[in-house]
Amino acid sequence: MGHSGSDRERNESGQYADRIPPEAVLSVFEDRDDRARPLTASDVMEALDCSRRTAHNKLGELVDRGTLETRKVGARSRVWWIPIPRTADDATGEERPLAVSNAIDDASLPGTGPTLEARREALSAAYDYLTEHPEAKKADFLRDVYHDHPAGYESAEGWWNAIQPALKELPGVDPPEERGHIWHFLGGD
User: What pLDDT score was predicted for residue 84?
Assistant: First the structure.
């Protein structure tokens, strides 16, 4: 496999590849009963009757567009899925009590406009993280949440100083008595 021009060889080996629009691949994801279930390249190959290489190319295009997410599972496999946007007012509102969405919307966070939006998202992510890791420590939030949702903060410490007071106020959150201790999530109901 030479690196140079490998895309070109790929197309010559099957002009067929270009007959399948990315939309066709997307429809494989959308025409399922369980839309949350990730798909493998094999699922796409079967549905579209195409080669593995074609399936991978098309899936890759959709990931580049941000339409699909992908991750490796195990040494050799990969799965793809359509990400569900996290906003309080779309269909995913059900997985989070309305009280929580409202509390996140009302939380006093520094900033305005897009910066404030990003900080609400970071707060929302911190809350979701806590619901999944009900014994999280500050260091866990900094490692796992700040990294993906820096929200305009240069430092993790600055981020935490803004997010932490807001997180404390959210329903079901049991903050530590002292700094550095474990946060608990008492559950939503």
Answer: 76
